[in-house]
Amino acid sequence: MSEDDRLRPATMDEIAESIAFALRYEGRKRVFHADEMMARITADRLVRHLRGSGFVVMRGAGARPPTDKPGAGDQMLPDKR
After folding, report:
1. DSSP symbols for the chain
2. Radius of gyration over alpha carbons of the chain, in Å?
3. What's the pTM?
4. CA 55 → CA 15, 18, 45, 47, 62, distances in Å?
5. Which tens digit of pLDDT belongs to each residue from 7-41?
């Protein structure tokens, strides 16, 4: 199976959640220069802009959503080939 077969378009919610997470955390460490509400508003606006500009963000089949829980991202999901 090629890499293209394992990719799928990410949903708007997945993209917004990842962007909002990146605005609130540096790795798994919480940063306090952007609060929860502002991070989500900014992420939603960025996603709408990307979609309106014709961008397609792809997500790998084994990709995990971002998390602030230690050790949660250390294990990879099995590759579904």
Report:
1. --HHHHEEEPPHHHHHHHHHHHHHEETTEE-SSS-HHHHHHHHHHHHHHHHHTT---EEETTPPPP--STTTTSSPPPP--
2. 14
3. 0.54
4. 12, 16, 14, 9, 22
5. 889 888 888 888 888 888 877 787 776 677 888 88
